[in-house]
Every structure is written in C-alpha cells, then in structure tokens.
Amino acid sequence: MSAELILHHYTTSPFSEKVRLVLGAKALAWRSVHIPVVMPKPDVLALTGGYRRTPFLQIGADIYCDSALICRLLDRLQPEPPLYPPESAGTAQMLAQWADSRLFWAAVPYALQPRGAAAALADVAPEVALAFAADRAAFTAGMRRPTLADATVALHSYLAWLELHLGDDRAHLAGPQLSIADFSVAHCLWFVHRVPPVAGVLQRHPRVLAWLQRTLALGHGRPSLMDSGEAIAVAAAAPGHAPVEVAPGLGFEAGDAVTVAATDYGLDPTPGRLVGLGVDSVTIARSDPRAGLVHVHFPRLGFQIKKEKIES
Ligand SMILES: N[C@@H](CCC(=O)N[C@@H](CS)C(=O)NCC(=O)O)C(=O)O
Predict the structure, then answer these.
(1) Which pLDDT does position 309 carry in this prediction?
(2) What predicted TM-score, i.e. pTM, was given to this entire model?
(3) CA torsion sign, 306 to 309 to 311 to 312?
C-alpha cells in the first residue's frame, strides 16, 4: 500500500470504533488524527468541504466519508480477512445496515441516559456538556430522536434477537466467518459496554457479551498520531487522486456542479464538480485554500446528489 491511511476520528465515536476495529482485524498501520467532538471543525471542513460527520479517512488528497465506504475501501486495499465473504456477503450487509441505523439509535440514547451521561461526561466541565447537547440537537434537527423509553425497549428487543441469532454457536454474526456485520453491531454495543452504569444490560445476554468481547479483542491495528495541520499538508502535497469515472445512466454527467449530502442526519452539503459516480459511490472535486484540489468520496446509498445552479 503506497500512501498512508489517515483516520480522522475521536476516541468516543462509535462509527470510528467500527473503523478502528476493521484496521485491527486487518492488522494495518494507520495515522490517527484526533478531531473535535463538536463544531466548529475548521480543519475537518478544509478536507471534506462541508461534511462534518465522524469518522473520515484520508489517503493523500482523497477523502473518504462514511464508515460504510471506508470499510469497502479498506477491504479492497487489504482483502484479508474479508469483510464481505462471498458465502455471507448479502446477509452481512443487511445486518450491518440494520445495526448502523436502528441498533445505533437504540444504543446511543440508552448509553447517554442520565446515569450513563454522568459517567461518560464525568471529566467534562458543565459548559462543555451543554455545548455537546446543543451541538447534537442541531446535528439531528428534523430527525425524530428516540426517547429513553423508545431506546430502552428497542435495545432490549435487539439484544434478545442477537442472543437468539447466536444460539446456534456461530462464531460470527453472519456465519462461520468474520464480516462487516460483526463490526457494525460491535461498535454500537461497545458504546454501551464502555459506560459502566449502563453496561449491565449486556450481562443478561451471555452469548452477545462473549461475541462482543471476542470482536473487541481484534484491537485497533497500529496507529500513530498525526496532527490535523500535517494531514492538510499531506493533501496539498499529494501528486494526484485515485482514478474515478462517471458511469452513464445514473442521472448526472461528469463536470456537473453538485452538492452531496447525507439523507438521515448531519445533512450539511458538500459542493463540488462531479468526477466519479457509480452505484456504490459518488466523488466530487473541490478546491480548498489550504488542502488544494481534493476528491471527496461518499457512498451512493444514504446520500443525495443535487445539481446546483451555476452563477453566470
Ligand atoms: N453513516 C455514518 C454515521 C457517522 C456518525 O453518525 N458519526 C457520529 C459520531 S459516531 C457523528 O458524526 N457525530 C457528530 C460529529 O462527530 O460531529 C458513518 O457510517 O460514518
């Protein structure tokens, strides 16, 4: 692998934990850039052009947004162990999508109930905790966030389903082989597991707990710290970009001025010129005064591309 893998993340981010565990399973070396937990994030936006969610992966002047796309990329770069083993790839991806959407939005509000938040934010000044709450309210504006009552019944149901699913002594969630499903479910339950006052809910599901401990033991690979200024300099100095093309028949042409934005929450759009489009991903080119010409890649699923009017 030529250019370095640079993961922009923060310790407490569940979707970052998903990617860190994939890096661990694949025994990869990577550079670790710690980004702010709340806005403003000027060095993040210099690279992504608008997307503010965590994590994203940088290779030179290519920026890969969303853990689903990052995991597909890592699997191409380092195929062993595979995240999409042919015998279970369909089941694995459906399970992963369920976990990243439904299980995530049960686990996070459950873990951040008052006694969980008190422990998770124990070392944080009250004004920082308030800023976090305000930031996440804006981040999820327009989305119906589960109440604690909603999240509690959902998490109990989901844990019971998983316990049943593991009842045939399968080693991994989609079958005998590790897959993307393990990482998507593990990052959600990790967020509950790491907060002692609420982690007891997992004890009632011994198969789930044993599977989670096995999955978390994959570790994080070999990270080494980098600061965000250095990461921007890496983008500015990169000799080029990963090859991409715009496939015909998908509604857009190469060079179109577009915005790309998530459709669920954290909807901030990234504007640019379309340079890549397929059924799996969309790529736009944009210039930044500090990072230079960057290509920002998104998954196609879960993101909306909109043509922008060009000022004449
Ligand atoms: N679908 C996205 C979801 C990412 C996501 O929700 N990340 C959370 C942190 S785990 C986030 O962006 N929180 C707000 C922030 O970090 O600014 C992915 O798979 O990467």
Answers:
(1) 79
(2) 0.97
(3) positive
